[in-house]
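In this section we walk through a basic example: taking a raw amino acid sequence and producing a predicted 3D structure, encoded as discrete structure tokens. The instruction is simple. Fold the sequence below.
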Amino acid sequence: MHARELRRWPVPGGLLDRLGMPPEAIEARSRRAARQLVGDRWPEAEAELAASLVYASGDPGLVDDIRFGGDPVANARAALDGGAVVLVDVTMVGAGVRLPRGRRLAVAIGLPGAAETARRCGTTRAAAGIMTGWDDFGAGGVVAVGNAPTALLAALDLADGCGPPACVIATCPGFSLAAEAKQALISSGLPHVVVAGTRGGSGLATAALNFLLQPLPPCGGGGPPRGRRGGL
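The resulting token sequence is shown next.
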């Protein structure tokens, strides 16, 4: 039998029929659980951002690895409201971003000249793309590194010598350079959102960006609009 020939859907008594829930119920339950895990470790806006990261990861232990510095929510949103660009390291981060009308996003590895610069300089395409796009997108913008620690190292060098970004999100995972690069960001004094250590991933950078790109509710709180997933 083909799926299109099913007479009833979900399959009566099947897993989806017994365990599935409407999207609004999944959203509410998941965000409530994530927010409870975060507790009162941070001010409200940062706590909601942390909950978005925990929600996106599905990992309660991630709470202990989240680091904020330099009022990242306020700095990032002020820059974005002023027309700043989002610069991400890889396509996977950008693919999940819900970009509001009028906002701009650039992907470092896809920028013209990034591949050639990487070959010439013996570095990664992500790091070369960060350098290639820094003047137009990185300086004064919101930079998100969800995959390549070398891109984060490049961003820190450029921030020091060619103009700082408004905020840096660093969730790059791995056993080579990731922990060291993220610790260097924490020590840099730049406004930051970091998942410390070796954990992380592109989806977490996307979750952070989606939170920061949301308009503030009329009450001024930091939580996401109802019915909108704060993670992916």
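Looking at the output, two observations stand out. The chain is about 45% helix and 10% strand. The first strand starts at residue 66 and ends at 69. In the next section we compare this with other chains.
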